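LOG
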Amino acid sequence: MITLDGLTKVFPAPGGGDPVVALDGIDLHLEPGRVHGIVGRSGAGKSTLIRCLTGLEKPTSGRVEVDGTDIAALEGDALRAARRNIGMVFQHANLLDSRTAARNIAHPLEIAGVPRAERERRVAELVELVGLSGREHNHPAQLSGGQIQRVGIARGLAAEPKVLLCDEPTSALDGSTTRQILRLISDLRERLGITVVIITHEMAVVREVCDTVTLLKDGKIAQTGELVDVAADPHGPLSSELISLPPAPTGIDAVIVNCDYGDSTRFRTSEDLIRAAEAHGAEATLVAGTIETIGGRQVGRVQLALRNASGAAISAESLASYLAELDAAGVVAKEETA
C-alpha cells in the first residue's frame, strides 16, 4: 500500500550553513490493511516523513508511492486527487467552532464539490461509525476531548481514503480516552480494511494497536518489523522502550542481573530464568520486571537477585556459567550490582 524507496529530504540551512538532512535514504514497505507505528524522538524525521507522504513536501530524491501512485511526482489537480486517498487525523482536531460536528465532518466533502444529498448520507454513516450518534448537532464547545477527536477521525475518513495518517492522535487525551480512541482506530481498520499509519512518541500506543513498527533516528530507519518480533528482540533499540523495566528495590544484598528475554526457545518466562539459576547453584528472586504478551508471545525484562542456598553471594564461577547459558540462548543478561 505504501512504499518509500530511497526517500531523502534535505533542507538548506538558513544563513548558508550546512544543510539539514531530515530524511536520509528511507526504504520502507507497509502492507495494506495493517496499523503501522512510526516512532522516534524529536528531530528524528517523523513530521517530515508524514509531510512527504501527503505531498506537502517534495522529497529531495526518492519515491513516495501510495496505492501505486508516486505522490512525489504529482502536481496540481493530480496531486489533489491522489490526496483523497489519504485521510489525516491530527493531535488537535482544529474543528471549526461555528460548525456542528456533522458540518465539520462534511467540510472536506464540500470543498471537493460533493452534492448535498451525498454529503448528508456520508456524514450520517460516519457519525454512526465513530460513535457520535446524538452528538452530530453539537458544536465543538459542547463536546469532550474524545468526542472532538472522533469528529476529527470521521472528517479524515469522509472521502473514503485507503490510508489514514494519524499524527500523535492521542497525545492530548487522558488515559481512558486514549484507550477508547485506539479501540476505535483498531475497529475501523477491521471494518473498513483501511491502512493506518500512526506517528507517535507513546510506546503504549504502539503496544496497544500497531501490527508493525519503525524507529526513526537522525533521519534513518534504526529498526523496523513486526511488533512482536521487535519487542522480543532484546538486542534491538526498541525493546527496552516497548517493555520498560521498573526501578528495583534498593539495599538488596545479592548479585542483581537484568535479563531481557522473549525470542529464546528455552527461556520463555521468568520462571525459566529462575530454574536455570537454580541449576547453577543460585537462588533467584524476581525483584522487578515487566512482562507483556504481544501477538500471543510473552516477552519481558526482569531483574533477578542471585544468592547461593545459604543466602551468601553467588560464586563468580556460578554467575559466569549462568550468564553464559543465557547468552547462548539469546537472552541478553547484564550483571548490575553485587
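LOG (cont.) second protein
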Amino acid sequence: MSQIFDFSKPIAIGSDHAGFEYKTALISFLEGKGIAFKDFGTHSTDSVDYPDFAHPVALAVESGEAAFGILLCGTANGVAITANKHQHIRAAICWGEEIAQLVRQHNDANILCIPARFVSEATAEKMLQVFMDTPFEGGRHANRVNKIPCS
C-alpha cells in the first residue's frame, strides 16, 4: 500500500512571522521544481497569530484541495498543535531528513511542520524534498494510522 501525494493538486503552505522567510525560500524551491502551491500567508515578518494560517492550510489538506501542507513557525509546535485539531490531519514536526522520511513512511503525515528557528534553510529544503518523495508504507503502519481519529 504505497501512497505518494497527488501532485496534480497544489501544496498548501503557511507560516507565522517567525517562519515567513523560510516560507518564501520554500516557495522559491517549489517554483524551481514547477510544483504548484497555494500560499495562505503570512506575507511579512510583522507579528501575527499562527492559528490564523495553520487552520486554512489544514482545511485545504483535509478537504482534498491541496496535496499536502507545509507549516512553519518558530518551534513548529504551535502550527502542529493547531493543524492536528483537524480530524484527518497528521501534522508532523520535523528537524531532519530522517524524521521527514519516517513521518511519511510510518505515520502517513500530510503536513510537514518546520521549526524555522532551529533548522537551516538548506535543511528545510532537504526535508521538504524527502517528505515529497517518500510514500506511506501502509501495512502494520496503516493499522496504527487508522486508530488516530477520535471518531
